[in-house]
């Protein structure tokens, strides 16, 4: 069996899946509340974490649930960020929810286009195509500096007050609560999505596309749809980033960001959405701590963690949690 | 015409450096079926060792090259034994993660040991300065790179087609289980091939240090390029890798000459077009 | 009377090697045909050609009178041509109930639904439970496939096929790899198949063939050399020659 089993680690439990959803959503809100109360000066960091969580959730959809290994997910995030940023700075669309919507649309469009290219290849070719796409997007954004600000970044983004009541200030409170709200909504929708027939189809495609076809279901259109959904989620993250930091840089369209997102996903655990959230939180927190000392030390640590995960904990943190739960519950692990 | 030859020689030099570094990756991928994203890191290590040997220890260039190759192989052998062996045959994502992890560690350690600045490998007298080819003068080290590339291609061809090891290598690439059943010690073939691949990468890293400058992010910066070469050329195919390197070298150099402000845009566009048209590589074999 | 399934003069070669040679076959609803032949005769290739996984070099495949030779494999499944696999292809981390539910949803064109679990669709869960019960899989309906016995996995393959409401069912060695103690289960399942379903079974197990088939087609070197009743097949000299070479009366066919 493979060294890295990407299947969902938690045992399927029947009965009241909705209840578990609400527990998860409650946990997210609780963690958010604790963060707000304990670290009121770090709200900008938390909002960044939320934006990245959305990126990693989007990656979980295509990699964890559909089995597509991609290093180009940042394309969708960056597309959303630039879409929202350009809409605000050039076209004066400063209503924050509209900006987020445009970000999601931009990401979805980028998802459709990327997948049309990426799904043409298999194995190494697919990976290379995914990298080529993000690099191409990066170069395009760099060249089109008149619109995107090039390597200086896109600035002049001034989101209007949310609902006309809550302005975006230096404290970042509005951005944080907006982000938290968006995250909760997205997680709720995605939980429904992965349980739906469409979600089952995707999981089947990941495991055995031949069997899926033998059931009369088409593989390519399904994956394309999932990519569009994934793009919307990533684009939301990018839009949130644009709204809260008021700046969009080329690094939001980089191979490096794609790789980071993959690291966060794998550390947390693929295929169950919770891993995406957990992984992002842990990695960004650590990165913030260690990078302050020396960014290269963080890189080394990340590398060591990756190797360790592959060798010892293929299902990431959620896998370890699942194993602990099984052991404590007295059940035999499979 | 002048420009054409000019671009041609530069492209040839760049392409040959790519070839020397990437051919090892092509063999590794074709043989062990391992997507080794850390391959560029080995080239980088070679460059670093050569730089340290020639600049800090004062060794002559030739010894520096030898030290680079030997040192990199020494580092790679335990990595193969303890890490790579665990992921032969694993799903692609697993291999990607493991080898990215190795790359990160190598970058971090390189920076820690030798700092973030660019490292050069001082060229010997013979390789400094220009060589007059008639239609233009070309830097001697570029000519050297081209010569090395041709030499490596030739030597590999002889190794693969004409020696006993080559037969065992080809058998293992074709069908590992069958080869093992016929008595080929595939473990040893893998280990030796991996060492050879790394040695070539290190060699390429040194020889190409003027064209691909040595600094900690080298491993990430060119990771994509080497992967693209293998993908376009088809894993396990020497002529395919050669063709891919020349083609990509031409695209890269032409782009740089005529539209430098576009950066790598046309390079990646070309990659997408080529890979979409030839998903198994220009000369790759069907699975 | 149009045959529900018809193959006309099917041909396939790989380079110089002819693997399928002028194969013609017609099936009526309710047929129970066994396709047998020595190894390498081209039986699985035939199934792959007919289901669309391989493209033939000549000939036609017709389903209910419609020419489906150019259709994709998924389109053929949707028109009622369903196959099972010789080596089970199942989703190890899903349960039998989920498998069958997915097949039902796909059949009804609802597998693209993005919201709401199938558990909330009473008619789907009821139908899935019914199909699983028919095949004796109810006790393991909620367990992951990686945890259930191989014989039960083979039955699940059949459950999936049935859930798709096929008009023509191609079974690729349904008893393959199943321990002898469990072949009874497969036989019972076969007996439960709808009477108007046309079934073609590839098999090596002769007991199976004789208990199941009303008609036997023998394929040798890509070509049908016999098409008749089970009683006749054992006596046919060409069949004996195909299986036994020229060694006359060795055991193998009762």
> Please, what is the average pLDDT of chain A?
88
Average pLDDT reading of chain C: 87
Q: Assess the beta-strand content of chain C as a share of residues.
A: 15-25%
Q: Do you know the CATH architecture of one domain in chain C?
A: 3-Layer(aba) Sandwich
Assign a percent range to the helix content of chain C: 25-40%
Number of helices of chain A: 14
Name the shape of chain C in a single word: globular
H/E element sequence of chain A: HHHHHHHHHHHHHH
Strand content of chain A: under 5%
Largest pleated sheet of chain C: 6 strands, mixed
Molecular structure report:
The complex is a heterotrimer of chains A (334), B (287) and C (254). Chain A is an all-alpha fold and 334 residues long. Chain A is built from 14 helices and no strands. In chain A, helix 3 packs across helix 10 (219-245), helix 4 packs antiparallel against helix 10 (219-245) and helix 8 crosses helix 10. Chain B is mainly α and 287 residues long. Chain B contains 12 helices and 2 strands, in the order H-H-H-H-E-E-H-H-H-H-H-H-H-H. Chain B is globular, with a radius of gyration of 19 Å. Chain C is an alpha/beta fold and 254 residues long. Chain C has a domain at 5-90 and 165-244: P-loop containing nucleotide triphosphate hydrolases (Rossmann fold, 3-Layer(aba) Sandwich), CATH 3.40.50. The longest helix of chain C has 14 residues, at 150-163.
Structure keywords:
heterotrimer, B: 287 residues, mainly alpha, two-stranded antiparallel sheet, C: 254 residues, alpha/beta, Rossmann fold, six-stranded mixed sheet, four-stranded antiparallel sheet, 10 strands, globular
């Amino acid at each position: 069996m493979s060294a890295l089993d990407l299947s969902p680690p938690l045992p399927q439990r029947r009965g009241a899946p909705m209840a578990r959803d609400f527990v998860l959503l409650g946990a997210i809100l609780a963690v958010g509340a604790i963060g707000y109360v304990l670290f009121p000066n770090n709200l900008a960091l938390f909002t960044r974490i939320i934006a990245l969580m959305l990126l990693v959730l989007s990656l979980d959809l295509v990699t964890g649930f559909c089995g597509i290994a991609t290093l180009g997910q940042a394309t969708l995030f960056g597309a959303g960020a630039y879409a929202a940023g350009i809409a605000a700075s050039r076209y004066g669309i400063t209503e924050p929810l509209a900006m987020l919507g445009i970000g999601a649309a931009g990401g979805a469009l980028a998802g459709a286009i990327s997948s049309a290219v990426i799904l043409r290849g298999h194995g190494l070719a697919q990976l290379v195509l995914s990298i080529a796409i993000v690099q191409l997007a990066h170069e395009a954004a760099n060249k089109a500096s008149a619109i995107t600000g090039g390597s200086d970044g896109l600035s002049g983004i001034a989101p209007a007050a949310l609902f006309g009541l809550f302005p975006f200030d230096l404290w970042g409170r509005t951005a944080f609560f907006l982000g938290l709200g968006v995250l909760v909504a997205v997680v709720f929708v995605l939980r429904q999505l992965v349980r739906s027939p469409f979600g089952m189809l995707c999981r089947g495609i990941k495991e055995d596309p031949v069997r899926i076809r033998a059931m009369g279901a088409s593989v390519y259109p399904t994956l394309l749809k999932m990519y569009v959904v994934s793009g919307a989620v990533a684009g939301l993250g990018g839009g949130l980033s644009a709204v809260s930091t008021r700046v969009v840089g080329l690094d939001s369209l980089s191979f490096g960001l794609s790789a980071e997102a993959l690291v966060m996903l794998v550390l947390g655990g693929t295929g169950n959405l919770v891993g995406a959230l957990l992984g992002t939180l842990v990695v960004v927190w650590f990165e913030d701590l260690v990078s302050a000392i020396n960014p290269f030390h963080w890189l080394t640590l990340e590398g060591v963690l990756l190797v360790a995960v592959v060798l010892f904990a293929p299902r990431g943190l959620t896998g370890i949690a699942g194993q602990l739960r099984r052991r404590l519950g007295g059940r035999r692990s499979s | 015409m002048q420009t054409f030859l000019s671009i041609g020689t530069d492209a040839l030099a760049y392409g040959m450096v790519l070839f020397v570094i990437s051919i090892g990756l092509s063999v590794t991928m074709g043989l062990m079926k391992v997507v080794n994203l850390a391959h560029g890191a080995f080239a980088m290590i070679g460059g670093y060792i050569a730089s340290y040997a020639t600049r800090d220890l004062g060794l002559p260039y030739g010894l520096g090259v030898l030290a680079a190759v030997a040192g990199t192989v020494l580092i790679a052998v335990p990595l193969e034994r303890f890490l790579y062996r665990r992921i032969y045959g694993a799903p692609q994502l697993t291999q990607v993660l493991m080898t990215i992890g190795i790359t990160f560690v190598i970058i971090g350690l390189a920076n820690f040991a030798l700092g973030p600045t660019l490292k050069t490998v001082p060229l010997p007298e013979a390789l400094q300065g220009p060589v007059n080819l008639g239609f233009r003068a070309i830097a001697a080290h570029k000519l050297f790179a081209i010569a090395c590339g041709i030499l490596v291609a030739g030597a590999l061809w002889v190794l693969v087609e004409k020696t006993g090891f080559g037969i065992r290598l080809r058998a293992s690439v074709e069908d590992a289980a069958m080869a093992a059943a016929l008595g080929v010690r595939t473990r040893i073939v893998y280990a030796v091939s991996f060492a050879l691949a790394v040695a070539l990468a290190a060699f390429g890293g040194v020889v190409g240090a003027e064209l691909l400058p040595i600094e900690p992010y080298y491993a990430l910066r060119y990771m994509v390029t080497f992967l693209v070469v293998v993908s376009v050329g088809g894993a396990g195919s020497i002529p395919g890798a050669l063709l891919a390197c020349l083609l990509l070298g031409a695209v890269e150099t032409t782009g740089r000459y005529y539209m430098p402000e576009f950066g790598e845009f046309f390079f990646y566009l070309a990659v997408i077009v080529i890979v979409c048209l030839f998903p198994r590589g220009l000369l790759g074999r069907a699975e | 009377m149009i045959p529900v399934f018809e193959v006309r003069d099917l041909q396939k070669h790989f380079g110089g090697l002819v693997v399928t040679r002028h194969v013609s076959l017609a099936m009526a609803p309710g047929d129970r045909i066994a396709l047998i032949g020595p190894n390498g005769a081209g039986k699985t290739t035939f199934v792959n050609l007919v289901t669309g996984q391989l493209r033939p070099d000549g000939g036609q495949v017709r389903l209910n009178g419609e020419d489906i030779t150019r259709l994709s494999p998924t389109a053929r499944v949707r028109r009622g041509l369903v196959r099972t696999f010789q080596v089970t292809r199942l989703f190890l981390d899903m349960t039998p109930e989920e498998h069958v539910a997915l097949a039902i949803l796909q059949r009804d064109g609802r597998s693209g639904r993005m919201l709401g679990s199938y558990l909330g669709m009473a008619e789907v869960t009821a139908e899935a439970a019914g199909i699983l019960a028919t095949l004796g899989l109810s006790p393991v309906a909620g367990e992951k496939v990686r945890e259930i016995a191989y014989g039960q996995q083979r039955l699940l393959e059949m459950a999936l096929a049935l859930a798709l409401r096929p008009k023509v069912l191609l079974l690729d060695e349904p008893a393959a790899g199943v321990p002898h103690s469990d072949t009874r289960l497969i036989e019972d399942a076969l007996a439960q198949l709808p009477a108007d379903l046309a079934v073609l079974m590839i098999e090596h197990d002769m007991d199976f063939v004789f208990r199941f088939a009303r008609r036997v087609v023998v394929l040798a070197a890509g070509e049908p050399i016999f098409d008749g009743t089970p009683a006749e097949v054992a006596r046919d000299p060409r069949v004996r020659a195909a299986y036994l070479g020229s060694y006359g009366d060795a055991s193998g066919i009762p």
